[in-house]
Design goal:
alpha/beta; Arc Repressor Mutant, subunit A; Nucleotidyltransferase, domain 5; 5-stranded mixed β-sheet; 41% helix; 21% strand
Length: 394
């Protein structure tokens, strides 16, 4: 008899309730059991039972506190000694997470960003948000061991600056790790968002156990993270994986990078939304997805065409890099097979097939958290690296 729980079973319901409690604590930091019941919609009795169970297994910590003169049980996520933080600056959102060195996320939040955000304003904003989140878990910047940052542009690992001009205005010529490190007095490490999304999918997502994989992030812009034997391949100056600037149509629209007909100009978020410029209800990729899910033929066709263009560029990537797996992430990946089926078809037509055929195409497993989880992995790796260096000098 199978032990797998079926949808709606008592086991799956209990697992879902556990997840709601843990997610609520990640967002708020610490809550009393009564507050947990309010934030999750679960009954106080259900919350009490799950808190006892997760406390016994080491997932949660509880302590007695006072609320309005009454005793209450305060609940927090348990954590190992030492915290790290991840900051993912995408084109339209900032996502922040704090975890311990054992990868338990203890706080998480996200806020919208203006389309053409600048480094000074957003680093100040991130500092304030991070400070509030640390306070919510009874910590401060002095408890942080390191911070990982993801940016929507290639980063030169030597200079720490954006590697190519025109791709992230307002951030060019800025040593982001140094500037942020000076603000919070914590070691900071910066990389491209697709690299870190790929790192997360390779460590704990769809690309686990692969020898070579490419994570293609399809959102406002399009880029790829190349992972070889679990390590990111960045190239000499950090520009490896910039699939969004593969030329698809040499007579096509001018790209922000200065070239014509790049994949970004045909399948990136702004290019897709421009096709609906006279439609006031089509302002964001999410609007396009909702319209397509409702059966709108124009929206579905635009997503399918984007998949075909991405597949053509991915074929070039496969012919050069020969990955075992292509993992598709980013906001547009939420379109599922509307995007992936034409992508696979174009890939099969244009990529060289090996003994196992062409590279398998799968959706990412980590959703919109992939990049911030990669930031945390980057921060943790650098903590471990520094510890190894200190040990070798003893």
């Amino acid at each position: 008899m199978s032990r797998t729980s079926t949808p709606g079973s008592q086991t799956s319901l209990r697992e879902a309730n556990r997840a709601r409690i843990v997610d609520s604590l990640k967002h708020h930091g610490h809550l009393t059991q009564i507050e947990l019941a309010g934030s999750t919609g679960l009954s106080p009795a259900t919350v009490s039972n799950i808190v006892k169970e997760l406390s016994a297994s080491g997932v949660l910590n509880t302590s007695i506190t006072s609320r309005s003169g009454k005793r209450a049980t305060e609940v927090t996520l348990a954590r190992e000694l030492g915290l790290v933080a991840g900051l993912h600056f995408s084109s339209r959102h900032l996502r922040v997470a704090i975890s311990d060195v054992g990868r338990t996320v203890v706080a998480e939040n996200h806020v919208p960003l203006a389309l053409d955000h600048r480094h000074d304003r957003e680093l100040d904003r991130a500092t304030l948000l991070l400070s509030d989140m640390l306070e919510s878990v009874d910590a401060s910047f002095s408890d942080l061991l390191s911070v990982g940052i993801a940016l929507p542009a290639p980063v030169d690992s030597v200079s720490g600056m954006i590697a190519t001009s025109g791709l992230l205005k307002g951030w060019e010529g800025v040593p982001v790790a140094q500037v942020m490190g000076d603000r919070i007095e914590v070691p900071v490490f910066v990389d491209n968002e697709a690299n870190l999304g790929g790192l997360a999918e390779a460590r704990f997502g769809a690309a686990r156990g692969t020898r070579g994989a490419a994570y293609i992030r399809v959102s406002h812009g399009i880029s790829a993270g190349l992972v070889i034997n679990g390590a990111i391949y960045r190239g000499v100056t950090g520009k490896a994986g910039q699939i969004g600037h593969v030329t698809i149509d040499e007579n096509g629209p001018i790209c922000r990078c200065g070239s014509r007909g790049c994949l970004d100009t045909l399948a990136g978020g702004p290019a897709l939304l421009e096709l609906f410029r006279d439609d006031p209800g089509m302002q964001r990729i999410r609007d396009l997805l909702v319209r397509a899910e409702s059966g709108d033929a124009s929206a579905r066709r635009v997503i399918a065409d984007a998949g075909r263009h991405i597949g053509i560029a991915a074929a070039s990537l496969c012919n050069l890099f020969d990955p075992e797996l292509l993992v598709i992430g980013g906001e547009l990946a939420q379109a599922g097979e509307m995007l992936l089926a034409p992508l696979r078809h174009a890939l099969e037509r244009s990529a060289l097939a090996g003994s196992l055929g062409v590279s398998e195409v799968v959706p990412g497993e980590l959703g919109d958290r992939a990049e911030v989880l990669g930031c945390l992995a980057l921060a943790i790796e650098n903590v471990a690296l520094e510890a190894e260096v200190r040990a070798s000098l003893r």
